[in-house]
Specification:
- The chain is mainly alpha-helical and 210 residues long.
- It is 69% helix and 11% strand.
- It folds into 2 domains: 1-28 and 102-210; 31-101, no CATH class.
- Helix 5 (140-160) packs antiparallel against helix 6.
């Protein structure tokens, strides 16, 4: 086995771990977490003029350079609860169902859904082709669906800061890409081998006619 795919697999694993580690370390800096509906508010404890205050670390929409005095923390959280409850009920249910705080992040969920659809599609296509031929067959499109699905899920799990999903997809992506590379090389080799046969047939036709 060539070392290239193994090196690429190890590199992708470390890349995924690094991408997940950055937001994970940022989250570890917070001192207080308050869930308001589907929104998770992370606060950092600090001091201002000798008083204990809190700074909002996340979400970005609530982040401010000015810390919240301790006497205003309850008021701040009550305002966020009122804003959440002011949303339509179906919207609150949908945001909670997809585990997102705003519709602006729904694009990341779509990437994950596309990845899952591609993974289902690869098995469905492989099953249909195998049933038609009555022989277990792995077509080329199976690896294309796997590669696209792996990339989408890798991206989605990085956004979710899910190390288990990242590790699972990072190794698979290299395997899918390697199989596509081997299929391409096989097609190229077959094309080269068939070229002399075609030339021989073309050369024999005039001779047979004469």
């Amino acid at each position: 086995m060539k070392p290239g795919p193994i090196i690429a697999m190890i590199a992708l694993v470390f890349l995924g771990m690094w991408l997940v580690l950055q937001p994970a370390l940022a989250r570890s800096q917070h001192d207080l977490t308050v869930s308001v509906g589907a929104t998770e508010i992370m606060l950092e404890r600090t001091t201002l003029d000798g008083q204990v205050c809190y700074k909002v670390l996340s979400p970005a929409l609530l982040r401010s350079d000015e810390p919240i005095p301790p006497g205003q923390l309850d008021t701040f959280l009550a305002e966020q609860i009122d804003r959440w409850n002011a949303r339509p009920e179906f919207e609150r249910h949908l945001l909670g169902f997809f585990n997102i705080s705003t519709w602006g992040t729904f694009g990341w969920v779509m990437i994950g859904l596309i990845g899952q659809a591609a993974f289902f599609g690869r098995m469905f296509v492989q099953w249909i082709i195998s049933e038609r031929s009555r022989v277990s067959t792995v077509p080329e499109i199976f690896w294309w669906f796997s590669f696209i699905g792996g990339l989408c899920l890798f991206t989605y799990f990085v956004w979710r800061v899910d190390i288990v999903g990242v590790l699972g997809q990072s190794t698979g992506i290299v395997i899918y890409a390697r199989n596509l590379r081997l299929i391409h090389k096989e097609k190229t080799r077959c094309a080269i081998e068939s070229t002399p046969k075609i030339d021989e047939e073309l050369n024999e036709k005039p001779a047979a006619a004469s």
